[in-house]
Write a structure and sequence with these properties.
The structure is a single chain. The chain is mostly beta strands. The strands form eight sheets. Strands 1, 2, 33, 34 and 35 form a five-stranded antiparallel beta sheet that branches. Strands 7, 8, 9, 10 and 11 form a five-stranded antiparallel beta sheet that branches. Strands 28, 29, 30, 31 and 32 form a five-stranded antiparallel beta sheet that branches.
């Protein structure tokens, strides 16, 4: 429990009032238009590196992560999945792959609920060291998971990212790790057949990592990877890949990426810790705009915790945190960029943000905030309906020592699910909270 009298001796004024609001844990919405958050639920123990979550149009949720165990003195990890039918409770975690040193797992779903899981299996020697990696794929359809299939084999694989469209077409990117890394990609057609893996980078750089994959409802896909020269992107038209396009001059400090339902794409990035947020957009023909500064403030800045989202009304939104405890937003309305603005002044330091747009153009920002001692960390949310942002943030989680790996998704029908890693002195815990977000007034 928080000792309020002890806090009053050390903190006073408006800051104290704000801290006492967040100290009580998950809070009620300020108006009927705001979502009603359910209390957090613990899904299982975890390793703090991996977490992914998806939801379908019916509000069925699936989360994946990996957990570590030690058997016979050999430490290993195993990828697991937990699922929740709409309105029900979470299942116990199901092991997806065999014991591995560093498995990595990711998910993507169609609106109808066909889920594709991709993870890295590793063959281990007697000491638990990996000798071979296999990229494994399983599909959840009609209530059950398919037998895992191997798409690729190599010495080591990391960071698979996947996206699917409503018909089940998919794009998958991953990193082959070695003396000289490589970014690979593969696609799946509507019949469920995967293409042969294709290398995206030209082999001239060492520090290559696959970063993002997205696909529009029309099957147009875009993937990104980074190396020492900067951010690169390639586009899949449904029949062939374009050559990789270099989008930045240097390796970014932070990078956000998104693909719109009609197959457009955008990135937001910072070139250094004190550099302002910039963006580039790809149009429907595959052409990229010149880089544009999004943060209008002059001088060195501390822009971090970037998030980028496509608005269903045809635009883009970029959200980020600043060293001044501000959460800022700038939006592109399909023709011009609106002026960036402060939408919230945080009590603590925001570390991760997720920007979500409702199907009518309303917006929500969810973030992970480090609070002043003794309040530690909390997941918060802010909602915009009828043009205006709510004045106060809603607490989604309780007060915790440390929270990491925040994830947030919605199904555009009002169901939002958020997951995070609750860091403990013992095994970490995966926790999740959900809310129903009613439709509001359409924003022009």
């Amino acid at each position: 429990m928080v000792d309020v009298q002890d806090v009053q001796h050390r903190v006073s004024g408006p800051l104290l009032a704000a801290l006492l609001i967040v100290a009580v844990g998950p809070s009620a919405p300020a108006s009927a238009e705001e979502p009603v958050w359910q209390p957090p639920t613990t899904l299982g123990v975890a390793d703090p590196d991996e977490l992914t979550i998806v939801t379908d149009d019916a509000g069925n949720d699936t989360a994946a992560w990996f957990r570590r165990r030690t058997v016979g003195g050999v430490a290993f990890a195993e990828p697991v999945v937990a699922q929740r039918a709409a309105g029900d409770t979470w299942s116990l975690p199901t092991v997806m792959g065999r014991a591995s040193h560093d498995p990595d797992i990711t998910l993507a779903t169609t609106p109808s609920g066909q889920i594709t899981a991709v993870w890295v299996n590793e063959t281990l020697d007697g000491s638990g060291a990996p000798t071979e990696a296999q990229l494994q794929i399983s599909v959840f359809d009609h209530g059950q998971w398919s037998a895992a299939a191997t798409l690729w084999r190599g010495n080591r694989a990391k960071d698979p990212v996947i996206a699917v469209d409503p018909s089940g077409r998919a794009v998958l990117a991953w990193t082959r790790v070695g003396a000289r890394n490589a970014a690979f990609v593969a696609t799946r057609d509507v019949e469920g057949t995967w293409s042969a893996p294709r290398r995206l980078d030209d082999g001239s750089r060492r520090a290559v990592w696959a970063r993002g994959a997205g696909i529009g409802d029309n099957g147009i896909a875009v993937v990104t990877y980074v190396d020492n020269a900067g951010v690169h992107a390639a586009r899949w038209t449904g029949a062939s890949w374009s050559g990789s396009r270099r989008l930045t001059k240097t390796r970014p400090t932070e990078l956000a990426f998104a693909v719109s339902p009609d197959g457009r794409a955008a990135i937001a990035y910072t070139a250094s810790r004190t550099a302002p947020v910039r963006e580039r957009m790809m149009n429907g023909a595959g052409g990229w705009s010149v880089a544009k500064r999004i943060d209008s403030r002059s001088g060195p800045v501390d822009d971090h915790a970037l998030s980028l989202a496509a608005c269903p009304k045809g635009g883009w939104g970029v959200a980020w945190a600043t060293g001044l405890h501000q959460l800022r937003l700038r939006e592109f309305d399909a023709a011009t960029w609106r002026k960036d603005r402060v939408i919230h002044r945080a009590v603590g330091t925001p570390r991760e943000t997720h920007l979500i747009y409702h199907n009518n153009g309303d917006a929500m920002l969810i973030w992970n905030e480090d609070l002043p001692t003794p309040f530690a960390a909390q997941i918060k949310a802010l909602t915009r309906t009828s043009r205006d942002w709510t004045p106060d943030a809603v607490s989604v989680s309780g007060n915790e020592t440390n929270l990491v790996n925040l994830r947030a998704v919605d199904n555009l029908n009002g169901h939002i699910v958020v997951a995070w890693d609750r860091v403990n002195s013992g095994p970490d815990q995966i926790q999740s909270a959900s809310a129903l977000w009613a439709n509001g007034t359409v924003i022009n």
